[in-house]
Amino acid sequence: MTKTAVTSRSSYLADGLATPRNIGFPLQSAADLIVKVDGVLQVLNTHYSVTGLLSNPVMTPLTPFWANGAAVRYRRKTPASQQYDAQAGVALSAEGLEATLDRNVMAIQDIEGQVEEYGFSSIRVPEGEEGGVLPTLVDRIGRFLSWNPLGKPIAVTGTGADSALRTDLASADVALGSDILAYRPYGTSAAIRTVRNKLGENVSLLDFGAVGDGDDDFAAIQLACEYIDEVGAGKISVTSSEAGGIYGISETIQLPAGCDLVGAGGSLKVLDETYYDAAIIGIPGADRLSVSNLFIDLNNVPAACGIIMRRNNPEFRVSDLLIINGVHSKAKKGGRALNIEAGVDPAAYGPRNAIITGVVVRDCYEALSISGGVDPQQESNIRADVLAENCQSAIGLFGNTASYPHSPDEMGFHVTMTARNCGKATTYAREHGVINADRACNGKIDIQVMNDDAYGAVGSLWRGDASNIMLNAQMSGNCSRALLDFNSYQELDAVDEDATWTATGNTLSTLVGDFKVKHSGTIAKPINVPISTAAYLENMRFDLQTDIVTSGKPLDSTLSNKINCYGRFQNKTSNAVIEGFFHDIGANVTFANYANREYRASDKGSLKFWVLFNALTMVVANAHNVASVARKGGAPDGTFVITFENAAPHALYMASGHFDPQSFTSSQNLYCPSAEITTAGVVAYTRSGGVLIPAASGPAYVYVEGNW
After folding, report:
1. Mean pLDDT, residues 275-279
2. pLDDT digits (tens, 9 = 90+) for 152-189
3. Number of H helices and number of E strands within the chain?
4. How many other C-beta atoms are found inside a 10 Å radius of the C-beta of residue 708?
5. Which of 285, 486, 572, 706 is most deeply packed, by most CB within 10 A?
6. Which positions ≥6 away from 347 have C-beta within 8 Å?
7. pLDDT attached to residue 155
8. Element (H, E) at 162
């Protein structure tokens, strides 16, 4: 008969009765059927019977019947033997020949079924060697596969009598134990390490029961951290998962020493307020921490920070992160994507060495916060490279120790940042800055700020007080208050705290700084300080370039008494550059006075004014702090009235000058009686008092300079 069935194996669940079962494929002999129940081989005519064979074979359970629900698996195993014997001179038997062909086909089907079920892979020995049969299932349970001195497979426990087998292993580089496999690192003489050690170097959150479906996986994450702590150091992979790879956290992840938390397709999402108001921190005193290649969603949970690099966590690395949706709480603060706490006690922990690279922050209250704190806090060694977008504050600097100015070894940071649409306060009603400082110290900031026109004006680029800060900035966008605002900064609801400043009140000031800013846009004024009597800027240098200054001046009255602050102010609208010590520039100099000119107020040393003018026409050729020159009473003689742009103080004024040598053979001194000093100017006389007559070659010029 022709064989149309293509299967030679099947299975079903027993019903506990003597229910006959159609086998579904033909048999040439009842002995060709192999039956197992729950993995145990059954015996023909003891546990079951077979009838029908080629036409319609049926298998019937015998008493005691197979238990209800037992797994019954059966297959055909046709012997690969020739049954038909053809004789010379005798006609071939069609039935005999077909039976032989049927037998061959069924044997081939049986082999194909086994290959399909158990796969094509197998352990093979090299050509020319004899293989071996694995020990039975009972002998293999709870044991390790090993090889005897003849190279045959055996099952061993690794203890007792079996322990001698270890001497047959290659150079003792592999050892057997009762509960774990151990190995020696290849090509070394190092101590044998366990697989547990190896797994500790790289584990996945999924290894500890995390699901990654967006629900709370904190318990599993904490188990992973505890495991790394136990083995000493290692990597935790935040992997993708079948559920999506978003691991919710209801509490702060606390990294142990030596822990490397790495994103591998998965992300973290804060689900609720946490004890530490952060997604990730280090265990107190833990060192060698790293977080990299990870996406952290703070989920607009109030006060949640992204990563707090807490004090006394030296050697902390953060790289290639995206942190979003951090909001502030007035009660608990927070909302800072990256929060670097006070420095490290170097005697106890070594230097801080905190490094942040390639981090993107979006839609957070503050992108980066760096704080001082309780002494000792030296050796901070902080380096940060951040891109910030849509943050109320790009950088917050808080030197919170009581003493001020701080020690030169406190805080200690270098920040590089690119910020877009940052600096507009919404949590608080007050105007603040892109960078906000409260007693910051000892740092360098390189920042580029790009605020769109639609974003609107911010209060300032810088807001607050500091000591020993270097700022190198490029900014586009308008500032409604000042480009640099040195009023104090605090996270308060008050719109402004200027009214709290008095001559005897708060004495905090900004000291020994260097601020260089190239700005595109409109500002109210270049620099703002609280009140003129406060010694608020000390030993500062400024190089400021901007487009439009609505006040029209580089300085105002609050800055004109600063004798140790130096500035260079360039206004592109007037094409004017004004440079010098603040007390030389004064409060009344405007950019319009020096349109299309570069004026260095300090070039004349301590001079308060100078002027070169035509003695006949009174036309001023060049001057500093001189509004006009005229003859006294209009008389054509050597008496001149010089009026200042900035009011002269009531003090003795001494003037000296000379005439153009083209008109006179020698210089002639000028003088000014004290009676001729006014707040508007002075009257200067030539000694001869004669009429000035121009030389034939050109007009006669007079040069006058003075001090007070």
Report:
1. 95
2. 788 877 554 444 444 443 444 444 443 445 555 555 56
3. 6, 50
4. 16
5. 486
6. 376
7. 80
8. none
